[in-house]
Amino acid sequence: MVPPNVRTASVETAVGTRAGKLSRSTDSTMLPVAVDAMGGDHAPSEIVAGALQANSDDGIPVLLVGRPDEMGDTGELDVLEASESIAMDAEPGSSVRRMKDSSLVRAAEAVRDGRASAMVSAGNTGATMASALLRMGRISGVARPAIATLIPTPSGSPTVLLDSGANAECQSEWLVQFAQMGAVFARHRLDVAEPRLALLSIGEEPSKGSPFVKEAFAALSDAEIRGATFIGNVEGRDLMTNTADVVITDGFTGNVALKTAEGALKALLTALLGAMGGRPEAVEAADVLAPELDTLYRKFHPDTYGGAMLLGVRGVCIISHGSTNALAMRNAIGVAADMVRADVVGHVTAAVST
Amino acid sequence: MVPPNVRTASVETAVGTRAGKLSRSTDSTMLPVAVDAMGGDHAPSEIVAGALQANSDDGIPVLLVGRPDEMGDTGELDVLEASESIAMDAEPGSSVRRMKDSSLVRAAEAVRDGRASAMVSAGNTGATMASALLRMGRISGVARPAIATLIPTPSGSPTVLLDSGANAECQSEWLVQFAQMGAVFARHRLDVAEPRLALLSIGEEPSKGSPFVKEAFAALSDAEIRGATFIGNVEGRDLMTNTADVVITDGFTGNVALKTAEGALKALLTALLGAMGGRPEAVEAADVLAPELDTLYRKFHPDTYGGAMLLGVRGVCIISHGSTNALAMRNAIGVAADMVRADVVGHVTAAVST
């Protein structure tokens, strides 16, 4: 077992501990995690480095997918050759249809064909979703898959935000499924026994929001979501508090909120570091505060949480930030393995069929 | 003239300077700013205190509106009696229709009737909008008024976000008017000669976003917005950078983004202050950094910017945060006076009639 502080950097209390699920020697009882070696701003070097760490330090079997001649030293990891690579800014749908020998498509096929237990990519988000959707397929009864992302909070558990970008336009009844899937995810990813679900709106009262949100409110109020409680509307300012465990929204609003939060944190950290680089006394004081600032930085950095999960497809698919480095990739692979072992896909299947 | 550093706290460079427009003796050439003395979490004491400061220190004539017996010492300020007060959580439309002798309705009527040049309230946002809309009326040709809010950035000028909450559901063509009004506001509020306008979406390409956003993109691309440049889509993470001067969106998305940004800043500041209150060495270092932290805090605090402006109604209407204290109210009254002197309402009228 990897100590919990590795996968979650210094925020093990924030994301819960998942002790006892992994062994330090490679786990021979699970299929490998397929890792898109070609995806991400720092691919393939940082991706391969993270995969090697996940394997050697965390005992997770990994299958690297991509062009072997570009990967450098891959140690004893298995490699699945794929000759093509989908660019970060390529049009997702057509790329996935056209580039059948791309690392993303091959990784999704490896899960579909039972050669891998999960896929992880830091590449083109849209193409990752499209590969997973087209090759693994949707879970029976799921209208649309959704991306679940963890938003840090100063104390307590992070908040699950979904859909954080899979569906730019949603129908209000899909949000009930997002709630069902998000509740399963919160239970297994964050160890929250009875997640509190909320709907993202612009006021707490059911009368607040767009007609779409009011419809979704009614649908969520009427729905039975097993093992979870719908607590009503929350606002953007509640995302980073301990108000709700899972916040439900359409993929457009969710993506705007996610990126606004990331941007705000970055702006404040930038300003903070700038302010501390001025007067000599300030520089000195900042040095003293280095441990506190480091903890804070890691707590609020997107890489800490090891990527988002595409919920609703027939396999574990972890979507990492484009900026993923080796540590973030190691975390993402660890999350993928945890989600496989917790059988999140099976639990989502059961949840949406009720 | 009040030194620019008063109204903008310590961020005068960030919000531009408006020197030379006010005199320290009360300006007899302008009608008073009507201030809703009853609105806000700290009303009436902090509101009255801010109004007194705006008058005595900044030379701005003020008309306090509300229940005189609750206001305490109002010095030499004029008072307009209003017997009712709309609660912070009251339903806006019906309250404004029913409570004809409320401070909000009377303040809006004072502007309509030529007794005041502007209105300012830290009370119920929806009721403030409804009062302004019903009593002052819409500018001819404006489909819907919109709220323009300033979002801080680490360096350079803040970003104007509109609509940040007036319209929970929008038609895509309204966003062209939001752009026209936002350009006028950026020019006069931030002294940006040729504002860069952008549309809030979930990717830079015109193909990204919901059908609504794609329609708005096309409409903004085709429109001629005098004295401004449409630079295309931006994402949530660009709100707090120097990418665009004005970011256009529907009121639902805008309100979620605004509150998410506020929540993220608050979460990080809370965590920062918490981290600095631990080890004795950290506490000491934080003391040394007090001037830097204070500047930072004020730069990113919503009160610094003196409230949002409701654009599209026939008068200046400034909407302040519910948490408004005396300094924030003084700032808001100063902004109201600036907007009156710059004839922003006249410029908006001209901009939407082109």
Keywords:
11-stranded mixed β-sheet, 354 residues, 13 helices, 14% strand, homodimer, 2 domains, Isopropylmalate Dehydrogenase, alpha/beta
**Could you give the count of β-strands of chain A?**
11
* CATH hierarchy class name of the largest domain in chain A: Alpha Beta
Widest β-sheet, arrangement of strands of chain A:
3-2-1-4-11-10-5-6-9-7-8
Q: Give the percentage of residues in beta strands of chain A.
A: 5-15%
Please estimate the helix content of chain A. 40-55%
Mean model confidence by pLDDT of chain A:
90
Name given to the CATH homologous superfamily of the largest domain in chain A: Isopropylmalate Dehydrogenase
Tell me the structural class of chain A: alpha/beta
Oligomer: homodimer
Low-confidence parts of chain A lasting 5 or more residues at pLDDT below 50?
A: 1-23
Order of helical and strand elements of chain A:
HHEHEEHHEHEEHEHEEHHHEEHH
Interface with most residues: A-B, 63 and 64 residues
Number of helices of chain A: 13
Radius of gyration computed on alpha carbons of chain A: 20 Å
CATH topology of the largest domain in chain A: Isopropylmalate Dehydrogenase
Summarize the main sheet of chain A. Answer: 11 strands, mixed
Write the layout of secondary structure elements.
The structure is a homodimer of 354-residue chains.
Chain A: H1 4-7, H2 12-15, E1 33-36, H3 45-58, E2 62-66, E3 78-81, H4 92-98, H5 103-112, E4 118-121, H6 125-136, E5 146-151, E6 159-162, H7 174-190, E7 196-200, H8 211-222, E8 229-234, E9 246-248, H9 251-275, H10 280-288, H11 290-300, E10 308-311, E11 316-319, H12 326-341, H13 344-352
Parallel strand pairs in A: 1-2, 1-4, 2-3, 4-11, 6-9, 7-8, 7-9
Antiparallel strand pairs in A: 5-6, 5-10, 10-11
Helix pairs in contact in A: 3-12, 4-6, 5-6, 7-13
